[in-house]
């Protein structure tokens, strides 16, 4: 099993069963059953997407939910749901120095 604790920039993780039971957790998501329920609901919702647009058997590989300073990455593997909360590095703002000209 992949050690989710070693994923760079992760600030929290959940490992869930398909029905939403928390198998492992840590960081910001330690024992966070509310987030677990939201994630399981989202995963179940993907099963109800229009089969004409997304044929059966073409399930998602990864779901990313992005906020300005962090994101959630959701993957399915071996009948488990893996959720990682990662910190996003904000782009540095460059301030151009203005030259002052004496008149």
UniProtKB/TrEMBL annotation:
Give one GO term, molecular function aspect.
guanyl-nucleotide exchange factor activity
**Key words of the record:** Lysosome
Quick check: keyword Nuclease in the entry? no
Q: Which domain of life is it from?
A: Eukaryota
**Location of the protein in the cell:** Lysosome
GO biological process per UniProt: cellular response to amino acid stimulus; positive regulation of TOR signaling
Query: Key word Transferase present in the record?
Result: no
Q: What protein name does the entry list?
A: Late endosomal/lysosomal adaptor and MAPK and MTOR activator 4
Q: Which organism is it from?
A: Odynerus spinipes
